[in-house]
Amino acid sequence: MSLRPCPCTRLVAGVLTMLFVAAAWAQDSRKVEEQRATGKEIAYDRSRGNCLACHAFPTQPDAVQTGNSGAPIIAMRARFPDKALLRALVWDATAFNPDSMMPPFGRHRVLSEEEIDKVVDFIYGL
Amino acid sequence: MTKAWLRGLGIALMAGSVIAHAGPREERTKLVDYFARKFPDLRHADHVYGALAFDPDARDQYDAIMEYPPFTAELEKAKLLFETPFRNGKTYADCLPNGGRMIAGNYPLFDEARGRVVTFEDLINQCRADNGEEPYAYDDPGTMGLVTAHARSLSDGMKVDVKVESPAALRAFEAGKREFYQRMGQLNFSCASCHVAAAGNRLRSEVLSTATGQAVHWPVFRGGDQPMTLQMRYTDCYRYMRHVSDRPGSERLNNLEYFHTYLSNGLEMKASVFRK
Known about the structure:
heterodimer, A: 126 residues, mainly alpha, Cytochrome Bc1 Complex, Chain D, domain 2, B: Cytochrome Bc1 Complex, Chain D, domain 2, three-stranded mixed sheet, two-stranded antiparallel sheet, 7 strands, 46% helix, globular
């Protein structure tokens, strides 16, 4: 068998393009999924808010296996007349209490700004 | 100004630095007292049960499991691995201090000659090297995990007795202490967030164990049949923190283990227990 330049360069290029498109699509679909997620989904999701790790949600029957390091999330409107303050707390609880165990979701980019807005909208209704 | 005066100052400064971080003993006592106040019903000796100490049902289950551990076959393999001679005919028992019996509670120790912390796992690898064998990887359940499952059990009943006796040892202890208290990773936790401040709380459905007593029972068999060393467990917790940790066997984790094991001083050891 003689050594020839691979005749399959175009095939390889084609496959690479497909892979690239697939990867871009996967990223896109993750973004879309992110954008579609509701505040509640983000709050519950163990890889995003995971608020249930530390907070009970007494008005939500589907909030199971909740932890108890933080206060139950209830009557938020009454307890936080200033919604911006509530958002600031979720964005960085250590700004209010340096010893807080609560992850600084905004400051450390655990959640995007948009995700924080959604989570805060969700809990504000509880 | 005389040289003597300068020397005197040097000694005073050195003594000062030792006194300034007044010491491991105070550090441990502070935590023991804190937990005693926080959990008046929890006996200090029961800290060795970790999260199980807070949950009588889980503790009963644990006692039942430990009567007939599902990992008995692994323990037999572990014994065989420990007792099988090296290629030169010698054994671990020939190499380890006191034949390997009632020694694990002295580790980690600070090796003054080498100027670093030596863990029990280092000791195992030292024996291997001294007898012409390849060292084990510190994160390998099938070798290091297994051999220590037997080797450490030879110290069951011994009380943890980690010592910090020189300025160099104190520096390693302090490095471990910083590692334990400093916030790390995307989620901004420290070890102390979960195992001091939130100890006894539930994180989702998992009860958080107290830092004191966490070092007495390694390796553990979690769920299945894979033994896990203490430092392998650390790397799991670093993952919870979303922090990329150094590897088991690294100076950083050794220093952490030195500090962290000191907190268990006085508590009774029992290797190779079940954890879920």
